[in-house]
Design goal:
Rossmann fold; alpha+beta; two-stranded antiparallel sheet; globular
């Protein structure tokens, strides 16, 4: 299987049927309810929709012995790979990133902050409150931003080059829910174009 790795994406694009058999027979529950219609490295739309999302794919991919060999992971050096492994003990030393954001934005660095409007982990109202605590004046007030003529969210621009945008219909990891819209948002922002 290592010879089927696409080095430009580090994805296994062949042996998809084997992966799907593993997914279907897996006792591991699906973590994400995102509908997958396309897979990186797979040409064209899938003839079906998976309810499992990329999380389950990443589990099987990252734990595959051939993939680990291709990535030069020494056998026995790393156990089972888990996304968002909560069992790793670590100490949180930064209580707030506010001072870092203030420091960077007041020095002229641009910042794009975005939230899915369906994010139940960090709701966009909380992000707005955090931005208000920066005490930046509003440069361009709320307005919709569009992709392909459709309202994709709302945006507001603040002093010190801070742009805030919501992504309509997106959850906590907005690009997972709305990849085209988030790509368009980022592309416009990085190109100095208005949202």
């Amino acid at each position: 299987m290592a010879e089927n790795l696409n080095p430009s994406r580090n994805m296994c694009s062949t042996n998809l049927s084997l992966l799907l058999i593993l997914l279907i027979s897996s006792p591991r529950p699906a973590i994400s309810r995102t509908r997958v219609q396309f897979l990186p490295g797979f040409d064209g739309p899938l003839p079906f929709q998976l309810e499992t999302g990329y999380y389950l794919f990443s589990y099987y991919w990252a734990n595959d012995n051939d993939v680990r060999k291709a990535l030069n992971v020494r056998k026995g050096s790393i156990g089972e790979w888990l996304r968002c492994n909560k069992s790793i003990p670590y100490t949180t030393e930064v209580a707030s990133s506010l001072e870092y954001h203030l420091n960077l934005t007041t020095k002229g660095y641009r910042a794009l902050v975005y939230s899915g409007d369906h994010d139940m982990i960090v709701p966009f109202m909380g992000t707005q409150a955090w931005i208000r605590s920066l005490n930046f004046s509003i440069v361009d007030d709320w307005r919709p931003w569009l992709v392909e003529g459709q309202v994709t969210g709302y945006t507001r621009t603040y002093a010190n080059n801070l742009t805030f945008a919501t992504v309509k219909g997106a959850g906590h990891i907005a690009p997972e829910f709305k990849p085209m819209e988030c790509f368009d948002m980022f592309y416009r922002w990085i190109s100095y174009s208005p949202l």
